[in-house]
Amino acid sequence: METLQQQYRVPEIYGAFWFNSDPIALGALRGYPILVDFWDYACQSCLRTLPYVQEWHRRYSDKGLVVLGVHTPRFPFATDPINVRGALEKLSIFYPVVMDNDFLVWGAFHAEVWPTRYLIDKHGFIRYIQQGEGSYENFEHAIQSLVTEAGYHDDFPLVMDPIRESDRAGAVCYRATPQVLAGWQRGTIGNVEGYSPESTIHYEDPGFYLDGRLYLHGDWLNSRNYLKLNESEGREGHVTIVYQAKEVNAVLTPEGEKSFQVFVRQDDDYLDETNRGEDIRIDEQGRSFLVVEEGRMYKLVRNKEYGEHRLKVSTRSNGFALYSISFVSCAYQEMISHN
User: Fold this and answer.
1) Contact criterion met (CB below 8 Å) for 149 and 119
2) What is the pTM (predicted TM-score) of this model?
3) Cis peptide leading into 115, omega within 30 of 0?
4) Angle at CA 301, nearest 5°, toward 304 and 275?
5) CA within 20 to 30 Å of 193's CA: 51, 84, 92, 264, which one?
6) For residue 322, which of 230, 193, 192 has the smallest C-alpha distance?
7) Cross-strand pairs, 254
8) Rounded to whole angstroms, how far apart are CA atoms 145 and 33?
9) What is the rounded distance in angstroms from the CA atom of residue 183 to the CA atom of residue 322?
């Protein structure tokens, strides 16, 4: 967490769509400490940080803290106000959120990564910046400090316990496979066929995989931001990736068809109760699958330990569109395999 002196004034926040509030002028909030959270509802790290921001809002809003969310979307489907409103309702976000589709607020704050949290003091100066996950305990102490500076002098609650074991001091984070984007603009395909922008290409699974690359089989439309299955006669297509991590998440959307099944295997086996992510279901035949109903991040795999695995995602639906696959690496100390 970066600590700043009183030298950088907070810029104003302008946005066409505000949720849970009328438009707010930060200049009118002098005298109040402010937490500004840049996030995206389809961002893995943002969703892992969100419960802390929500709890800080619950704990400190009656003590003077103002919490504002700035929703800066990574993918086009998250620019739709209807989708954002639906996400806010599902995530139970009640503090004000402004849409930043054109990255104007992002640029004014010089944000660089999702999520980024800023703490502003009662005089309107940016005092603390946290990029990415982590430093939750230190950040809450900073909140308490600025709330005290603003005039609150009663007792504070104890700092939050970590929400996840991986957030505790002593948790070990190995280097995970970096996020893999799917679209031709920034994507990484391992097939020799490569990309052909805005075209449908037939791919053959090579059967040999390098870490952190997407390997396709079937006919796939290469779009700027995603890969979409484009098979005829209901034939199956699949994506394979080798990764090193503990958990796997994927950003998926239904393009046209909705509520279709996507089957997920790891190391040639279907997932089970020991390693399935929250969005995975198990059918009567023991097959692990998820149902894609809306554009968002889906939680696929939650292994007990960090390790290297091969993930295969398959479907027969031409509504299947893959935007990205991301990974979580943290593992609690005694859960790490040294074999």
Assistant:
1) no
2) 0.92
3) yes
4) 45
5) 264
6) 230
7) 320
8) 10
9) 8
Written as one letter, the residue type at 238 is H
Cβ atoms of 330 and 299 closer than 8 Å = no
CB 300 within 8 A of CB 248: yes
Q: Which tokens hold the place of 121?
A: 């003091």
Q: Domain span at residue 312?
A: 173-335
Residue type, 6: Q
Ramachandran angles phi, psi of 76, nearest 5°: -55, -40
157 with 182, same domain? no
Regarding whether 143 and 19 lie in a shared domain, the answer is yes
Q: What number of other Cβ atoms are within 10 A of residue 75's Cβ?
A: 18
Any idea what DSSP says for residue 23?
-
Encoded tokens for 225:
């931001």
Give residue 139's Cα distance to chain centre. Answer: 20
- Asked if 258 and 242 touch (Cβ cutoff 8 Å), the reply is no
- CA-based nearest residue to 292, from 318, 320, 316: 320
- Dist. CA 222–CA 4, nearest whole Å: 44
What number of residues does the chain have? 339
Q: How many domains does the chain have?
A: 2
Domain boundary pick from 163, 196, 214? 163
Encode the chain (339 residues) as per-residue pLDDT tens digits: 676 777 789 999 998 899 999 999 999 999 999 999 999 999 999 999 999 999 999 999 999 999 999 999 999 999 999 999 999 999 999 999 999 999 999 999 999 999 999 999 999 999 999 999 989 999 999 999 999 999 999 999 999 999 988 888 777 778 899 999 999 999 999 999 999 999 999 999 999 999 999 999 999 999 999 999 999 888 999 999 999 999 999 999 999 888 999 999 999 999 999 999 999 999 999 999 999 999 999 999 999 999 999 999 999 999 999 999 999 987 443 333 333
